[in-house]
Every structure is written in structure tokens, then in C-alpha cells.
Design a protein that fits this description.
Elements lengths: L4 E4 L2 E4 L29 E3 L13 E3 L32 H8 L3 E7 L5 E9 L7 E9 L5 E11 L3 H19 L7 H27 L8 H11 L1 E2 L1 E7 L4 E7 L3 E8 L4 E6 L9 H10 L4 H4 E2 L4 E2 L8 E2 L7 H11 L19 E6 L5 E5 L1 H4 L4 H17 L13 E2 L5 E2 L15 H9 L5 H9 L12 E7 L9
Antiparallel strand pairs: 1-2, 3-4, 5-6, 6-21, 7-8, 8-9, 8-10, 9-16, 10-11, 11-17, 12-13, 12-18, 14-15, 18-21, 19-20
Helix pairs in contact: 1-11, 2-3, 2-4, 3-4, 9-10
Keywords: Hydrolase, Metal-binding, Protein phosphatase
Pfam family, one: PP2C
Protein name: PPM-type phosphatase domain-containing protein
């Protein structure tokens, strides 16, 4: 998504990824429809006009039942303008409907682990952008030494959906091919190098394919060139966790600011602790600032905004795609002039400024542990500790096979510096009741939990206003032992 700084909760949702002045003006055509105010009112028909004078809005027209098919409808007679129905077309979601909406893109997947038992992945995606820019994938394939490995990936797109759509199909196979060639006895550095190469090679292919299409002899405006360059014009973060059940090891690779957090069980204290398996790659990460300073000597003051953490207007420092941070200025201007590309960034001197190369971590895990993977839409409103606490309470309730009692609590917002209302998820507002899917439970509590009005309002919020209420949110919870099996 294009990220403008917008607050949700006490946090800032960085609406990825470009500053507002980086976007192009677009013209959209809208249609309206409405139901009659009562059973005696005439039917209301909505017409869409592709062009109205000076961009004026659409109008309600009322059809008469005795008109022939295909005729232009006539306006019914109203005693006065006040009798003309004027109602909001936005659907209001009550709690039952909001729960159903949240679950539209929820699923649970099982995978085999050693000893004949099974692991489980709970997934949910809730869109804010239209079309949604988040994607995800889960698959089992070859890992290090040929071991059967679980791959779980989340791809948070921005400036469009095309790049994340490519990653959904291609990143796991790329990584599986690369690490599948590494011997089981290989050192960790060799395994990490194979993962990094897979990420880099896929991004290089995306960019090279786009460049070849842009440099072809196709006439300006050709549809096939526009389609071919799309995955390079938009961009996407990538978060990929790889679980080797033979070695009980999780390797996590991150490009961008999606995040993986381990819920690590401690038998000594009898509870879970949160441990980050990745570190957000933004201008607030000093390691990233140092890396950019070294790669672009003398430019750091111009390219990284220390207040917003943005790199030449973008909220992350690594990503797939994003040719405006990678291609030469001449190549970008040519694409803009001939195939509707986007203009180069201001203060653009020594590209590339971005890379798709991930940082990789390796962690031994036990069957009682779990991993939460999520796009930044979740982490914008929920801390690592709160997320692990939520899943921990979900597991306890599931073991008891009984939801927690949920009081209906009033919403409470703080107002951020930019004037937008904000909130943070907190255990005191948890609603632990979605015992079939831990990812659904996490997103519900990120959006309000027991504060029912806040939750229903967050679901009711419509595009594009929803971008100031919630981000696209995609969450996966990986259990190394199926929680359903522990209740039997």
C-alpha cells in the first residue's frame, strides 16, 4: 500500500510506501445503489456515468414499473427534496457480521512432524486496501539436506499488488530449490547464504524481466509492456520462516518490516516469553542507516529522514520491486514517458538504494513453542509481548475448551500529533473467544477485542478511509504441535 503517516492506536500506521506527493492523480467512476426506505416506496435504480460534467457525483434515478425494458428511467414525483432518500451506502457491521467478515479469509492447515504427530498453521487476512496488497503462502518442500520443511511466508505489498502476487507464487520454490542443494552437514553461514541468494535472484529476475520489456521495440503504451513491468513498479516486503522438524530449527528471513515473533515456553516459570526472530528494516534501524551510509557516502542526510524513518520517501529500507529506488534515473524517465511508469525520487543520485537481500536468523524450538508471523498491520497496534500473551491465553482457553468471559468494554482513543485517533492493543481488553483459529483471535484483539464498538467500527471502515483505521493485516501462527491434539 502507499504509506502515508496515519495513526491507528497509539501507533503510527506508515501507509506504505511512498510519500503523498509521490502518487499520481487518478480519476475513478463510482456507482451507487440503495434500498427503498419502506415497502411502499418506488424501486431505486443506481446508474453509473463514466463521465459527468466537471466530475460531478452520480444521481439517484427511480424507475417506473410500467416502463419498457431498456428505457431511460423516469424520476418519480416527490413532494419535496426532503422526501428524496439520502442514505449512506456504507454497510454497518454488528458484532456477528464483523466476526463473519473477519473470518472470510481465515484457514487452518496441518503438516506432519517427526514421531507421527502433526503441526498446524492458523492464517487470516483482512484487507484495507482495494484491491488488497498483502499475500501469503504456506507449503511443505525440500529443505536443508533434503529434509521435509515447512515454509510459511507473508508478503506485504505497497504501491500496488503485483509484486506481492509474484512472491506468493515464486519465493518459496526459489528458496526451497536453493537450500535443497545444501548438505545437512553444512555450516550455518552456507545455509544463510543460500537463502539470501534465493531472495536476491528472484528480485533480480523481476527487475531484469521488467527492464527487458521496457527496452523492447514495442510502441509506447503497449499493454504487454505495462503488464510486464508491473512487479517492478510496485514493491513488497517478504517474511519467510522455514521449520525443519527433523532438526527442530526455525530459520527466518526478512526483507522489510513484516515481523516474526517466537512464543518460547519456559518450564521453569510456566509461561511463554516473546522473542523477536526478525528486526524491522526501516530508517529507525541504526544498522540499516549505517549500511546505507556506507553504500552512499555523503548522502545519508538527504536520503534518510530521521524523524519519519523513510528512505527517499519510503517507509522501509529493503524490498522486492520498487524500481524507483533501484533503476537509473534515465531508465525511470523512459518508462514514465512511454509506459506509464512513475517519476524518479527527489535527490536521486547513486541507485540502487534498496535491496531485497534478507537478514536471516536461526533458532532451535520445542514442540510447545509457537511462531507468530505478521505484516506490519498487526505490529502497528500490538507489541511482541502482547501478541504472545494473546496466543498464550488462547492456548489456555482452548485446552479448557471454553472461551474467556468477554465484557463489553467502552472504546478509548488517544489523539495523535497528527490529529488522528489512536489506540494500542492491551491484555485488559482481550476477547479470547475464537478458539478455532489463533490468527483470527490476534487480529480481533488488535482491532479492539472486548471494546466491541471499536472492533465493529474498524471492520465497518471502508476504503480508502480504512487506510487511516487499519492496514492490510495478514497473520500466521505456526504451532509445532497441533493444539487440537493436546485436548484429547
Amino acid at each position: 500500500m502507499f504509506r502515508k503517516a496515519a495513526t491507528v492506536g497509539r501507533l503510527v500506521i506508515s501507509r506504505r510506501r511512498m510519500a503523498p506527493h509521490a502518487t499520481r492523480r487518478t480519476v475513478k467512476a463510482y456507482s451507487w445503489s440503495a434500498q427503498p426506505p419502506n415497502k411502499d416506496s418506488p424501486a431505486i435504480v443506481a446508474l453509473t456515468f463514466a463521465a459527468l460534467v466537471a466530475g460531478a457525483s452520480g444521481c439517484y434515478y427511480v424507475s417506473q414499473s410500467d416502463q419498457p425494458a431498456g428505457a431511460v428511467p423516469r424520476i418519480s414525483d416527490f413532494a419535496s427534496e426532503k422526501d428524496v432518500p439520502v442514505e449512506s451506502p456504507v454497510k454497518v457491521f454488528n458484532l456477528k457480521e464483523a466476526n463473519a467478515k473477519l473470518r472470510e479469509q481465515a484457514s487452518t492447515l496441518l503438516f506432519d512432524v517427526k514421531g507421527g504427530s502433526r503441526g498446524r498453521v492458523d492464517v487470516v487476512r483482512l484487507s484495507s486496501n482495494n484491491p488488497v496488497e498483502d499475500e501469503w503462502a504456506v507449503a511443505v518442500g525440500k529443505g536443508v539436506g533434503g529434509n521435509e520443511t515447512l515454509y510459511a511466508g507473508i508478503y506485504d505489498g505497497h504501491a500496488g499488488w503485483a509484486t506481492s502476487a509474484v512472491l506468493r507464487r515464486a519465493l518459496i520454490p526459489y528458496v526451497s530449490c536453493a537450500v535443497g542443494r545444501v548438505a545437512a552437514s553444512a555450516e550455518g553461514e552456507l545455509i544463510e547464504s543460500a537463502i539470501k541468494s534465493a531472495f536476491n535472484n528472484l528480485d533480480t529476475r523481476i527487475m531484469n524481466d521488467a527492464q527487458r520489456a521496457a527496452d523492447s521495440d514495442k510502441e509506447p503504451g503497449s499493454a504487454d509492456v505495462i503488464a510486464a513491468v508491473a512487479p517492478s513498479v510496485s514493491g513488497s516486503c517478504a517474511l519467510l520462516s522455514m521449520y525443519d522438524p527433523v532438526l527442530s530449527v526455525v530459520r527466518t528471513a526478512v526483507t522489510g518490516d513484516s515481523r516474526a515473533v517466537l512464543g518460547s515456553w519456559s518450564s521453569e516459570v510456566g509461561k511463554y516469553a516473546a522473542e523477536a526472530l526478525s528486526k524491522d528494516q526501516t530508517g529507525f534501524n541504526q544498522d540499516e542507516v549505517d549500511r546505507l551510509d556506507k553504500a552512499h557516502p555523503g548522502e545519508i542526510g538527504d536520503i534518510v529522514d530521521t524523524k519519519s524513518g523513510r528512505l527517499l520517501g519510503i517507509a522501509i529500507t529493503r524490498a522486492f520491486g520498487d524500481n524507483r529506488w533501484k533503476w537509473t534515473e534515465d531508465a525511470l524517465k523512459s518508462l514514465q514517458a512511454n509506459y506509464h511508469g512513475l517519476e524518479p525520487r527527489p535527490r536521486y543520485k547513486t541507485p540502487p538504494y534498496m535491496t531485497a537481500e534478507p537478514e536471516v536468523t536461526t533458532r532451535a524450538v520445542t514442540t510447545k513453542d509457537f511462531v507468530i508471523l505478521a505484516s506490519d498491520g498487526l505490529w502497528d497496534v500490538m507489541s511482541n509481548d502482547v501478541a504472545v500473551a494473546c496466543v498464550s491465553r488462547w492456548l489456555a482457553a482452548k485446552k479448557m475448551q471454553k472461551s474467556e468471559a468477554v465484557p463489553d468494554m467502552k472504546s478509548s482513543y488517544a489523539v495523535g500529533e497528527d490529529g488522528w485517533p489512536s489506540h494500542k492493543s492491551s491484555p485488559e481488553f482481550f476477547a479470547i473467544e475464537d478458539l478455532d483459529n489463533a490468527a483470527v483471535c490476534l487480529v480481533k484483539n488488535a482491532l479492539g477485542g472486548a471494546r466491541r464498538a471499536m472492533f465493529c467500527g474498524a471492520i465497518t471502515a471502508y476504503a480508502p478511509i480504512s487506510r487511516y483505521v487499519r492496514d492490510d493485516m495478514t497473520v500466521q501462527v505456526v504451532f509445532f504441535h497441533n493444539p487440537d491434539d493436546s485436548t484429547k
